[in-house]
Write a structure and sequence with these properties.
Blueprint: E1 2-3, E2 9-10, E3 17-23, H1 29-43, E4 48-54, H2 69-78, H3 94-99, E5 102-105, H4 108-118, E6 126-128, H5 139-157
Parallel strand pairs: 3-4, 3-5, 5-6
Antiparallel strand pairs: 1-2
Length: about 160
């Protein structure tokens, strides 16, 4: 048995820690971060895995299907399979926060107010990045930015900075 930073004891089969990526709709940015992180963490033999959730999935009225086409296209370009991520967007829960050793919201200005409003007890646990949604940045800008942030996170979690 191992005990994670949150105090949760787990068996050896779950001997990894969890990073939870958050965005508004859990359709585009957080899902890309999840897939890229899992691919790179596995390649680096890092004992971390990612999941993702949305802070306000009801705002995703223009989100059709389980995953943004731009995310699927970019993952394909990167040689990362997207099939495992073909699920409908999911709203973050108390249990999601509690199970994560690290929580990353993709855009401070957009997500900090949602975290404070809807999950204030977790606000201090969240690390905020600055990756714009499609209203301010096209996928060809935002998705590579997520990849760079994930690469830096992998280095940090590996003890490299």
């Amino acid at each position: 048995m191992t005990t994670h930073a949150c105090g949760k004891a787990t068996g050896m089969a779950d001997a990894h820690q969890t990073v939870l990526f958050l965005c508004t709709g859990n359709y585009y940015r957080s899902r890309h971060a999840e897939a890229v992180f899992n691919h790179r963490a596995a390649a680096a033999d890092l004992p971390w895995r990612a999941t993702s959730r949305g802070l306000a999935i009801e705002r995703g009225v223009n989100n059709h299907g389980p995953l943004a086409r731009s995310t699927v296209a970019r993952l394909t370009t990167l040689g990362i399979g997207h099939e495992a991520y073909l699920r409908m967007p999911a709203a973050v829960t108390h249990d999601d926060f509690a199970a994560a050793q690290l929580v990353v919201a993709l855009k401070d200005a957009e997500h900090r107010p949602l975290v404070i409003e809807r999950h204030p007890e977790w606000a201090e646990k969240v690390e905020f990045w600055h990756v714009h949604d499609v209203d301010f940045a096209t996928p060809d800008v935002a998705l590579p930015e997520i990849e760079e942030q994930v690469a830096r996170l992998i280095v940090r979690l590996s003890g490299g900075g």
